[in-house]
Specification:
It is a single chain. With 383 residues, the protein is an alpha+beta fold. β2 (7-15), α1 (21-38) and β3 (42-47) form a beta-alpha-beta unit. The longest helix has 39 residues, at 316-354. The chain has three domains: 2-127, Endonuclease/exonuclease/phosphatase (Deoxyribonuclease I, Chain A, 4-Layer Sandwich), CATH 3.60.10; 133-233, no CATH class; 245-337, no CATH class. It is built from twelve helices and nine strands. The two termini are 47 Å apart.
């Protein structure tokens, strides 16, 4: 993860083996899960051991909203073979297509049969704008039924959608108007559009009424039946560093462990800069809020909360005892996440097999690519 002017980018390096299908699928699954959890622009680069055309046909889900980024002035990145091949490139999110400044081959890479690729990102990504579709907010209902408000009946929702100016003015798409005119039923098409618009707005009002009854707030969640509208918006808006970790418990544990470790190292330092850093870290621990859904034992959670609240009173001995406690909690949480990751991979493969093994079949149907031969062979006599 890198942060550039407040914009967080995920830079991931991968290597897909040429013949181990299981390892390929497991790598793809791990990368896909990481990208979904981070929710930020990503660039997945490396040696894919297959051409961009073949990787597109592999049905890897990160390609659905992404793009393949290849060097602009070369068609060969691997010199093995007679003609060479293009198997080193990157898969980026749609943001990267706008954030990337230049893509050049780098011939100084310390790999004999491969040519490196230099990806140059624009130095001010937060200022990059692009024409984007305006979408309504995602409706997220509370998990706890007691927190949900009483859902409005359909008739009341229809009245709100019609008379409270909830559904916005709708304009026909020019190509749709031309098509309806050619069929001679433009009025029928307009009536059908208006009916669908009203039904869609009514349905959204009914769902949104479970989280709010304020009309101004409802308007932010309604508009899926509208004609798409576009605006120039930032490609990659600024994000807080907290988005760099997907699991709130792991983020909290890693923050506490890092702060305590630094306090332990600079505790006896006489450097004035160390003292200022000590005060800053203690203040950060005091203000650090524990996640409400923290997934650790209650006794450990209470202890960590006390450590953060009274960080200014911790001496060298207290820090020496607190760090292993946090490290153990971090290790246990990592083990739980690894188990969940393995379970998710198994279910992902099972589901793909039930659907015809699209991803697995694409990879197993490819021809095995032999690794490049060594330049020098030494026999048992040392010659």
């Amino acid at each position: 993860m890198i942060q550039l002017h407040g914009v967080i980018l995920a830079i991931i390096s991968v290597y897909l083996t040429p013949d181990d299908t299981r390892k390929i699928l497991y790598t793809q699954y791990g990368v896909s899960k990481l990208i979904r959890s981070l929710n930020c622009p990503y660039l997945v680069g490396g040696d894919f051991n297959t051409t961009p055309q073949d990787i597109c046909s592999s049905e890897w889900d990160i390609l659905e909203g992404g793009t393949i980024l290849v060097p602009s002035n070369t068609t060969v990145t691997c010199t093995a073979g007679i003609h060479g091949s293009l198997i080193d490139y990157a898969i980026g999110s749609w943001h990267m297509e706008h954030l990337m400044d230049k893509i050049h081959p780098f011939y100084g890479a310390p790999v004999k049969t491969h040519i490196g690729i230099l990806y140059i990102i624009k130095d001010k990504p937060h200022l990059v704008m692009a024409n984007q579709i305006c979408k309504p907010k995602t409706i997220v209902l509370f998990d706890d039924p007691e927190k949900q408000q009483v859902r409005y009946p359909w008739r009341k929702c229809a009245l709100i959608a019609e008379f409270k100016n909830v559904q916005k003015e709708n304009e026909s798409i020019p190509i749709v108007e031309e098509y309806s005119k050619s069929l001679g039923n433009k009025q029928d098409a307009d009536d059908l559009r208006d009916d669908y618009l009203h039904w869609s707005a009514t349905n959204e009002v009914q769902i949104t009424s479970q989280i709010t009854h304020e009309i101004k707030v409802m308007k932010q969640y309604i508009g899926r039946g509208q004609t798409p509208k576009f605006r120039y918006l930032p490609v990659a808006p600024k994000q807080l560093p907290d988005h760099m970790h997907s699991d709130s418990t792991m983020r909290y544990l890693q923050t506490v462990e890092t702060c305590l470790t630094v306090l332990h190292r600079i505790y006896d330092s006489i450097d004035p800069r160390a003292y200022k850093q000590y005060i800053h870290i203690v203040y950060k621990l005091n203000k650090l809020k524990q996640p409400p859904d923290i997934a650790i034992e209650e006794s450990i959670a209470i202890r960590l909360k006390g450590i953060c609240s009274y960080a200014q009173k911790l001496n060298y001995s207290n820090l020496s005892k607190a760090i292993p406690c946090v490290a153990l909690a971090t290790k246990n949480r990592k083990r739980e996440l690894d188990k969940a990751n393995h379970k998710g991979f198994v279910s992902w493969v099972t589901e793909s097999l039930e659907k015809g093994a699209g991803i697995a079949h694409k990879w197993t149907s490819q021809k095995t690519k032999a690794p490049p031969l060594p330049h020098i062979v030494t026999d048992v006599m040392g010659q």
